[in-house]
C-alpha cells in the first residue's frame, strides 16, 4: 500500500502582501507576486503550483498592498478548487478584522489575524510561503523531514557561497542540521559544517505543526515589543528556546538531472530582466516545459503567434526568443527577447534582449535594446532605447545594470515635453 502523503494533512499559507518597491514602476499598479514572469505566468504561480503539485489542496493567500491585479488573477486562473472535494483556495485581504487601525502588522500577524480560518481547514501542518520567488520545490519532502526530526519549525534554506550570504538571513547549524543561531544579514556569515565556504540562507519557507504555531501566534500577538514577524521575532525565539531545523533546498528542488538548484528573487529590475532573458537560453536552468511539474496559471484564449513579411529589413523573425500566444510580429527582427501575450510589433522595428509584458505595441522603426516594457505600453514610431544611456535616463528608469524600464506614464511625459 502506498504511503499516504503528509501534504494531505497540510495547508499552504502564502504571504503575498509585500510592496516590492525595488521593482520600481513595475509595482506601481500591482503587488510584486502579481508581476508577470516567463511569458504567461505571474510570480505567485510558482508558489501556488509547487503547493498543488506537492499534493496540497488547502491554500490561503494573504494580500495587502495593491492587491486587485493579484486577486483577479487568482480568481481567473485558480478557480478549479472544489469545496466538495475538501479543496480550498481562499484570498485573505487585510480587512481590519479585529481593530479599525490594524492592518497586517507583519508576516506573523497576517497568519494570526486568520487563526479562525486556518482552524476551519482542520489541518495538522501549516507551510508558510513567500509569494514572490521563482523556484520549483516538492514541499512533501520538506514536510516529511520536519515530522521525522520532531522540530518545532523547519526552515527552507538555500546553499550559497558564504560571502554572498551577507544579504540574507543566515543559519548556523550543527552536524545534525539543527539551527544554533539565526543571523540577519551578517558581515561574516557562518559556514556549513560540511562545507565551510558555503552558508545556509533562509528562503522564507517555514513548516510548523499547526497547534504549536497557533499557541505561538497568540502569545506573540499580545507582546507589545514584538514586530509580529516570522524572521525578526518568532524564528529567533524558537532557535533560542526550542528546536529549529534547516531543510536544504537541494534535496527538494524539482529540476532536470544534472541541473543546478534554481531559486531566484526577481526583486529588482536587473534581476527581473535577467531571469526572464535567461529563459531564452538554449537549455535554461529553469525548465518551464516540464510536464511532470507544470506551472499553472490563468491562460487567455488567444490565437497562435504570427510572423509576417519577408523583405530586406522588413522580415518578421525571432531568434533565440520566446514569443507568446496572440503576438503579431510584423516585419520586426527580434533577438534574445521574451514577449508576453498579445504583443504587436510593426515593420522595420528591432528588439534585442527585450522583455515586453502583455499588450505592448511597438510602432514602426523603433529600436529597443536591453529593456523592460510594462503592460499596455505603446512604443512610438522611431523610438531608440538602449544606445545612449544619458538620453534614456532623461525619460525612463535606467537600472544600475543598464536596463531601461519603460512605462506609458514615462512615454506620456516625454511626449508632452517634446
UniProtKB/TrEMBL annotation:
* One Pfam family named in its UniProt record: NTP_transferase
Give site residues, Could play a key role in the communication between the regulatory and the substrate sites.
Answer: 64, 103
Q: Where is the Glucose-1-phosphate adenylyltransferase/Bifunctional protein GlmU-like C-terminal hexapeptide domain?
A: 303-406
Q: Where is the Nucleotidyl transferase domain?
A: 12-280
> GO MF terms on file?
ATP binding; glucose-1-phosphate adenylyltransferase activity
* InterPro entries in alphabetical order: ADP-Glc_PPase, ADP_Glu_pyroP_CS, GlgC_bac, GlmU/GlgC-like_hexapep, NTP_transferase_dom, Nucleotide-diphossugar_trans, Trimer_LpxA-like_sf
Reaction(s) catalysed by this chain, per the record, are:
alpha-D-glucose 1-phosphate + ATP + H(+) = ADP-alpha-D-glucose + diphosphate
Where, in this chain's numbering, is alpha-D-glucose 1-phosphate bound? 104, 169, 184-185, 202
Q: Does the keyword Acyltransferase apply?
A: no
PROSITE patterns, alphabetically?
Answer: ADP_GLC_PYROPHOSPH_2, ADP_GLC_PYROPHOSPH_3
Q: Name one process (GO BP) from the record.
A: glycogen biosynthetic process
- Report the EC number(s), separated by commas if there are several: 2.7.7.27
Q: Under which pathway is this protein filed?
A: Glycan biosynthesis; glycogen biosynthesis
Per UniProt, the keywords (alphabetical) are: ATP-binding, Carbohydrate metabolism, Glycogen biosynthesis, Glycogen metabolism, Nucleotide-binding, Nucleotidyltransferase, Transferase
Gene3D superfamilies (UniProt xref):
Hexapeptide repeat proteins, Spore Coat Polysaccharide Biosynthesis Protein SpsA, Chain A
User: Its family?
Assistant: Belongs to the bacterial/plant glucose-1-phosphate adenylyltransferase family.
PANTHER family per UniProt: GLUCOSE-1-PHOSPHATE ADENYLYLTRANSFERASE (PTHR43523:SF2), GLUCOSE-1-PHOSPHATE ADENYLYLTRANSFERASE-RELATED (PTHR43523)
User: How does this polypeptide assemble, per the annotation?
Assistant: Homotetramer.
**NCBIfam families the UniProt entry points to:** glgC (TIGR02091), PRK00725.1 (NF001947), PRK00844.1 (NF002023)
Q: What does this protein do?
A: Involved in the biosynthesis of ADP-glucose, a building block required for the elongation reactions to produce glycogen. Catalyzes the reaction between ATP and alpha-D-glucose 1-phosphate (G1P) to produce pyrophosphate and ADP-Glc.
Q: What is this protein called?
A: Glucose-1-phosphate adenylyltransferase
* Native source organism of the sequence: Paracoccus haematequi
What lineage is this protein's organism placed in? Bacteria, Pseudomonadati, Pseudomonadota, Alphaproteobacteria, Rhodobacterales
Amino acid at each position: 500500500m502506498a504511503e499516504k502523503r503528509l501534504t494531505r494533512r497540510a495547508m499552504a499559507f502564502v504571504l503575498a502582501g509585500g510592496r516590492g518597491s525595488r521593482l520600481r514602476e513595475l509595482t506601481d499598479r500591482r503587488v510584486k507576486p502579481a508581476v508577470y514572469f516567463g511569458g504567461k505566468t505571474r510570480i505567485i504561480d510558482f508558489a501556488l503550483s509547487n503547493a498543488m503539485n506537492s499534493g496540497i489542496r488547502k491554500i490561503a493567500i494573504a494580500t495587502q498592498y495593491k492587491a486587485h491585479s493579484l486577486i483577479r488573477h487568482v480568481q481567473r486562473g485558480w478557480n478549479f478548487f472544489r469545496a466538495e472535494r475538501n479543496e480550498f483556495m481562499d484570498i485573505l485581504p487585510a480587512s481590519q478584522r479585529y481593530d479599525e487601525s490594524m492592518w497586517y502588522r507583519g508576516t506573523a500577524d497576517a497568519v494570526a489575524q486568520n487563526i479562525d480560518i486556518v482552524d476551519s481547514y482542520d489541518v495538522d501542518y501549516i507551510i508558510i510561503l513567500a509569494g514572490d520567488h521563482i523556484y520549483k520545490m516538492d514541499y512533501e519532502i520538506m514536510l516529511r523531514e520536519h515530522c521525522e526530526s520532531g522540530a518545532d519549525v523547519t526552515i527552507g534554506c538555500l546553499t550559497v557561497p558564504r560571502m554572498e550570504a551577507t544579504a540574507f538571513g543566515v543559519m548556523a547549524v550543527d552536524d545534525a542540521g539543527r539551527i544554533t543561531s539565526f543571523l540577519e544579514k551578517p558581515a561574516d556569515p557562518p559556514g556549513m559544517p560540511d562545507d565551510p565556504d558555503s552558508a545556509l540562507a533562509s528562503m522564507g519557507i517555514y513548516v510548523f505543526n499547526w497547534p504549536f504555531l497557533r499557541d505561538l501566534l497568540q502569545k506573540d500577538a499580545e507582546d507589545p515589543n514584538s514586530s509580529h514577524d516570522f524572521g525578526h521575532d518568532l524564528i529567533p525565539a524558537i532557535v533560542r528556546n526550542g528546536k529549529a531545523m534547516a531543510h536544504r533546498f537541494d534535496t527538494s528542488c524539482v529540476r532536470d538531472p544534472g541541473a543546478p538548484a534554481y531559486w531566484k528573487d526577481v526583486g529588482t529590475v536587473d534581476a527581473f530582466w535577467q531571469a526572464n532573458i535567461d529563459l531564452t537560453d538554449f537549455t535554461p536552468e529553469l525548465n518551464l516545459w516540464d510536464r511532470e511539474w507544470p506551472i499553472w496559471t490563468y491562460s487567455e484564449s488567444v490565437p497562435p503567434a504570427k510572423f509576417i513579411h519577408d523583405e530586406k529589413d522588413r522580415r518578421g523573425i525571432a531568434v533565440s526568443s520566446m514569443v507568446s500566444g496572440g503576438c503579431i510580429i510584423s516585419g520586426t527582427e527580434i533577438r534574445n527577447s521574451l514577449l508576453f501575450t498579445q504583443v504587436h510589433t510593426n515593420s522595420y522595428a528591432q528588439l534585442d534582449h527585450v522583455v515586453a509584458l502583455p499588450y505592448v505595441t511597438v510602432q514602426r522603426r523603433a529600436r529597443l535594446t536591453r529593456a523592460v516594457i510594462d503592460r499596455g505600453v505603446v512604443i512610438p514610431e522611431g523610438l531608440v532605447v538602449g544606445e545612449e544611456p544619458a538620453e534614456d535616463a532623461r525619460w525612463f528608469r535606467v537600472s544600475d545594470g543598464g536596463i531601461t524600464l519603460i512605462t506609458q506614464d514615462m512615454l506620456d511625459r516625454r511626449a508632452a515635453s517634446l
